[in-house]
Amino acid sequence: MITLKQLEALRHVVETGSIARAAQQLYTTESALSKRLQELEQGLAVPLFDRSGRSLVLTSTGRVVLEMASDLLARRDAVLDIASSPNFEGRVFRLGMTEFIAAGWLTQLLEGVRQRYPGVDLEPRIGLTDDLMRDLAVGDLDVVIVPRSAMCAGFETQTLFVSPNTWVGAPGLADGLGVLTPAKIGAFSLILQPRSSALDTSVRRWFEDNQIPMPKVISCNSLAGVKSLAIAGFGIVPLPQAYCAADVEAGRLSVLDVRPRLVERVYCAVRQPGSALGLAAQMSGVVQQVLGTATPQRVKVRKLTAVRSKKVNTPRR
C-alpha cells in the first residue's frame, strides 16, 4: 500500500538532492528513509530513480509520480489547514511585490488581506523581479506579484492587469527629434534597474529584437531613483504609465514618441502549485480581487494617454 510518508520521502529527497539532508528535514534516519523509497518502488512495481550514476536522478516515471505526490501532499496540507484553522489564524503570509506594485497598491493589498483574514500575520517584501521569483522557488515567499515575462514553468499564475509602458525624459531632452527609433535612442543614456529587474530585461530584449546595440546604461536599484534621474536629465527610461503620470502632468517629465512600442507588461499573482484550499491559493484570490478593483490605476492611465496624445500630435499641426 502506498502511504503519504513514502510520497513525502520522495519529495524531500528530490528537493534536497540527498537522502541524508532529507532525513534531517523529516527527523528520521537515512536507513528509514531509504526503506520508504524502496517500499514505494516495490508498491508501484517500477523504478523511480536511475541508479546508474552517483547522483539521485528521477526516471521519467519517477517525475510523473513526483508531480502527483506533490499535488496529494499539498491537498493534505490544505485539509489540515482547514481542520485546524479555517481562517488561517496564526499563519504567516509572505507577499512579495515589485516597487511599482508597492507604490500603487501596498496599502490596498494589506488592508484587503486583513479584512478577509484578520488572524493572518502579514510579511510584505519589495524587491526586483528575478529576486522575488527566486525566493518564491525556494519557499521564502508564498505569493509574488510580478510581470508575466518572469514566469517559469511549474508555477500557478493568476492574471491581474495590463500595465502599458511609456518612454519619458526631462522636458526638452528630445525636442525636435520627432519619432525616436532604436537607432536614435543610442544617442541617449538609458536609466534602468539592475538586470534582475523586469524593466532591464524588457528593454534589453527590445534592443535585441531591433538588432541595435545597447547604449550607455545608468543603473539604479530603486524605481523611484530611476525616475528621479530621468527628471534630472541624466537619460531616458520606459516607465509604467501609472507610475509617472503625475510627473508628466506636472511637467517634470515629457513623454517621448518611441517606436516600435515596448510590449505591455501583464502583471500576475504567482505561487507554487498546490491545492486551491491552501493559504497561498486563497491569498492569490484576495490579491486578484484587490488589484481588479484598483481604480486609481485606470484613472492615471487615461490621463496620461490624453497628455501623451497632445504632446505627440502638436508638432504635426
What key attributes describe this structure?
single chain, 317 residues, alpha/beta, Arc Repressor Mutant, subunit A, D-Maltodextrin-Binding Protein, domain 2, 12 strands
What would you call the shape?
elongated
Q: Classify the secondary structure makeup into a structural class.
A: alpha/beta
Secondary structure tally, helices: 12
Per CATH, what is the topology of the largest domain? D-Maltodextrin-Binding Protein, domain 2
- The Cα radius of gyration reads 24 Å
Low-confidence stretches: 295-317
Arithmetic mean pLDDT:
84
Folded structure, characterized:
This protein is α/β, with parallel strands linked by helices and 317 residues long. It has 3 domains: 4-84, Arc Repressor Mutant, subunit A, CATH 1.10.10; 92-163 and 266-299, D-Maltodextrin-Binding Protein, domain 2 (3-Layer(aba) Sandwich); 165-263, D-Maltodextrin-Binding Protein, domain 2. The protein has 12 helices and 12 strands. It has helices at 4-16, 19-25, 30-44, 60-84, 99-116, 129-137, 182-185, 198-209, 223-231, 241-249, 279-292, 295-313, and strands at residues 49-50, 57-58, 92-97, 121-126, 143-147, 156-163, 165-169, 190-192, 217-219, 237-240, 254-255, 265-271. Helix 1 crosses helix 3. The N and C termini lie far apart (80 Å). The model is unreliable at 295-317 (pLDDT under 50).
